[in-house]
Amino acid sequence: MTLWKPDPTFYPSPRDAAAAPAEKLAYVAAFDRSASRPDAMTVLDTDPESDSYGAIVGWTDLPYTGDELHHFGWNACSSALCPSAPHPHVERRYLIVPGLRSSRIYVYDTKDLVSPELVKVIEAEDLGKRAGYSRPHTVHCGPEGLYVSALGGYGEEGPGGIAVLDHTSFEVLGRWESDRGPQYLAYDFWWHINHDVMVTSEWGTPSMIEDGLVGESLLGRQYGHRLHFWDLRRRRHVQEVDLGDQYQMVLELRPAHDPRKKYGFAGVVTNVEDLSASIWVWYEEGSRWAVRKVVDIPAEPAAADDLPDVLKPFGAVPPLVTDIDLSVDDKYLYVSCWGTGELKQYDVSDPFKPVETGSIHLGGIVRRAPHPAAPSGRLSGGPQMIEVSRDGRRVYMTNSLYGSWDDQFYPDGVGAWMAKVDTAGFTLDERFFPHGDDFRGLRPHQTRLQGGDASSDSYCYP
Amino acid sequence: MTLAAVILLGAFHGINPSMGWLFAVARGLQERSRDMLLQSLPVIALGHLASVALVVLIVSATDSLVTGSVLSIASGVLLVGFGLWHLLSKRHFRWVGMRVSLPQLAAWSFLMSSVHGAGLMLLPVLTRLPAGTTAAGAHHHGGGALSGGMVVAGIHTLAMFVTATVIALVVYEFAGLTILRKAWFNLDRMWAFALVGAGAITLATAW
Asked: Which CATH number applies to A14-449: 3.20.20.70, 2.130.10.10, 3.30.43.10, 3.40.50.2300?
């Protein structure tokens, strides 16, 4: 049913959104690596005034096993206020939750519920037959409906791409691309909504990821190393920008929230020449898109004995930048180094000259830095998916990357934890550290904050 | 009375952010240019006018073929049905593209107005224009109905344009868009009720 007034979580501009009230709940997708019991949508209490602050207060098991929940998103967001097709009286209410391994897409209702309720299952076959894709990943609400990126083709390796789902029925409408040009690999996507520009990134095809990182493919430089720019309106590929084939796995894309701006950040997992990680800026140069590397994070030397097999030949821990997140005011970029176990904060007021303003060590392949809430333990896993609150005051992170990759890089167990950083002093919140059995044997992957967060909404007004 | 209704309906359409003032404000903000806002509004009004004029053309063409009461009853049924569909359907207008040229903006406005049934809302007035009603049963060429209808469309669009311009400027210069969060009443639902109401009036006065 439509509302009489716009959904209160929709904001015309990033400035308005930054003034939003603090989230009281966080939704965290968690999966069972053994695929013997169902994955779950877990719900955490993020209200510091509450008695159950930092605890899991909601839990909904999926109906099947082996989905491997990964990323997910909302059915509607602030882009519903955009003037070209306004529909602001819908509700931000449903979570669209893809299973990266099963290719199913689940729809969960969160309205007036602590534990979300399943309302729809889109079978892998529907996604495959209607859009030609499998392994659904990133979800964004946008002008034509819900956009869902997918890593693989239906019954074949590729190309991966983007499927469009209906805003209200959530039926798969079809494949988004009308002309994909040279694009084959897929991973993340987002847009400059006021400029009718879509940007997509590259990871690998299903066979390159599902059984773990394939060393030969990495050294053969076969993982993704390009960005693709598209005409959002005509669904056409416009330009491919190659970062250089040593830059393997261009993952998360974070365009500026200010709709007047035409730049954004992309994280690269590793450079095969020296195992460093990097952050890139894309921007417009004349009428063409260009990229520039703005941050290099070097690998840290380590004794072979301390390293998992996959890294022994290199004698170093790669930072493995697996996620980046840009605050809603476009001032701070948060970077997770899942290998070295570090969360970095950069002041990116000048996107071309990031200044490192904060660093927190937590976990890490070698360092195993403990959380202050459990100072005696050695912590496995590292900061992985990051989510920043709309007001920019809180950063949440979870520790699992992807089942088979967790096992390669943390062979003695990646563990399960979620942590929160208060950005005012850039310190870990000792009261917020759900971990271990709290997640009942599941591994937490991505966080979405109630009402929206720094990677959920796009805005049409500056 | 009729004139007041035409003007009020124009203002009602002008107030609705979906009908274009919001797009004009967005274009102005995006380019930091009030000129951009001001040049968008007449184009949006033109698209609206085209949508309403299309209904006038259809009415006057139909009017010359059937009797006035048949036209009124058909219009009433159409309005009630269209209004109910708007009320019950969850579909919303889809349009991709924020960077549009002025002709594209006019096309956008035409489509937006047509999908919302902006012209249909004027049916109670259009079906009761003198040339249409007095000529019932007698053969005529609809010339009177057509010109009268076009005058109605023109006045209606002018009212819509003035209202939209005032709101766009106030929001752009003073109020700011944060106001949308509180003040963007679901006019589309009101709109659906208005369509049903207009249909009922048309039916009630058909005899």
From this structure: 2.130.10.10
